[in-house]
Fold:
Amino acid sequence: MRGLEQKNVLVTGASSGIGRAIAIRFAQEGANVAINFLKDREEAEAAAREVLAARAGIKTCLVQADVSREDDIKDMFANAIAELGSLDVLVNNAGIQMPCPSHEIEAKDFDRIVSVDLRGAFLCAREALRHFLARGARGVILNNSSVHQMIPKPKYLSYAISKSGMDNLTKTLALEYAAHGIRVNAVGPGAVVTPINKAWIDNPKARGEVESHIPMGRPAAPEEIASVFAFLASDEASYITGQTIFACGGLTLYPEFRTAWASGE
Ligand code: NAD
Structure:
């Protein structure tokens, strides 16, 4: 895709799942990638090896940070910029979820999820904006949202609220910084085969249940989500800002209306 060669990209939560696929895809496109990870250095080093193997001549570095901690985020940006020289693209990918009936959610658990999934994305975006503005350069911010930015998710209230908030984070920052040449967009995946979904991936009954709700009849591979991020960061998407592209196999199309039950036919 046009415009990604030699761009410098920071991907949060990039040692596993969709983030890892995003890091590899950007490297395939010729970009240098800073891989943020939370704790598991071995996993991050394995991701870095895959990134380096994706294309000759690209650079990568590991930056450890908990995106719920403001000081960590500042250090992460300083380290990524020191290693790569500058940043052109931020991908806010790190995210967590925790199932719990809404009336039983503890305040600390609610706060934890919002502080990673929404506040963390905002704080990273803020650091990226400061960097882009200080350089006087164009930049791209991409958020990994979810179909649950628009579809309610019982028992995952704080996750769904965070992703809904991410919708407005995307739109508000896009509007506020459009005149500076900074584009802000999001991807809204449906069900993707990653560690976050370990509850159903290897359980045929649970997986069948998930698949029965997806119009395309299957979950996505992480690479099918990563390609949308690469597109949105590239010059192919140069006139797109403030949008969420749903890569969800049709989940946002009200699948219960596949048959015309509502009109009695
Ligand atoms: P995953 O668990 O493999 O990835 C999440 C990553 O975030 C992990 O690498 C984890 O270490 C990292 N992380 C968690 N807390 C962090 C913190 N405080 N600081 C830094 N990193 C942290 O699962 P995934 O499916 O690849 O999830 C990636 C993103 O995709 C999440 O934002 C998730 O909400 C979103 N998403 C996933 C799906 C899906 O079906 N898998 C669907 C929609 C959206």
